[in-house]
Design a protein that fits this description.
Length: 91
Amino acid sequence: MEAPLTLFVWSASRIVPVRITEFSITEEAFRHEPQSIRAKVRLGMRVLSVTDLGFDHRGSQYLPRYQRVKETFAGIPTGGTLGQLGIGAIP
């Protein structure tokens, strides 16, 4: 049986199919009742390729656009602006 497709969405142009490789939650602070109020989450992912998915898989449609975005980022010189990386204003 095939696992459900998991997509990691960084932005509208950066959507990639991934496999979750690591997931953990460490609760650090609690209220009086057993309810956590602060926790650390650790998440590991591996981007899937056409080899992993197959050409006919619906997750493969995201790979060409993701590859173009990676190639664009690779062409940005060191010291590029946040806007060039697709990041808007940071408050």
